[in-house]
Amino acid sequence: MAPRLRSGAQAVVPGDFVLVAHSMGGLVARRAAERLGPRLRGLLLADALPETAPVYDTWDETTKKIDRMLAVTQTLSRFPPLARLFSGNVRRLFSAGTYRTMLAEDFTPAGIAQTREEIRAVAAAVPRFRAQPPALPKCPAIVLSVTRAARGRERQHAAIREHQRRYAESLPDGRHEEVDSGHLLQAERPDLVAGRVRRLLGHDL
């Protein structure tokens, strides 16, 4: 499996690269980092959720609630005006071109079906991640925590930030930063994300 992953990465990115992951994608990226070899110059975790975070204690129930909401959204997404209505929360965060692409690919019955499948796969994998966490990355890593919590989730958000900080401190070559942003950091602060990628490529922590 490791050689296949390395050859796939070589085909997409022929040189050295930085792996960037957001939210629950941090678990996937950290597992991938175990197999990507020395071309992986850095790991950037943008408000990623460590497996130790208490949010995962009740993740099965959370997944069921999300899936019920997405099932309704999947049906409504057949009608473009409704798709634009329920995707309005991301419209202001992305450029017009990116938002049009999201409407065409993500906020459709097929796109939402894929999202539901991915969320269920993550829920099934979380116990395995918690029982056997990915190895610490051998490359430099930056862990970004956002400072703005969603309304009503301030306590959960504070706990997540603390676990992000602890994870960064456990790394042999890691750094933790707090960023003035909401959870969609890559949309709100793209210049900052790009700057941290450049820093990792230069190994300037």
UniProtKB/TrEMBL annotation:
UniProt name for this protein: Pimeloyl-ACP methyl ester carboxylesterase
Entry superkingdom: Bacteria
InterPro entries, sorted: AB_hydrolase_1, AB_hydrolase_fold
Organism: Sphaerisporangium krabiense
Annotated Gene3D superfamilies: alpha/beta hydrolase
A GO term, aspect molecular function: catalytic activity
Domain AB hydrolase-1: residue ranges: 11-194
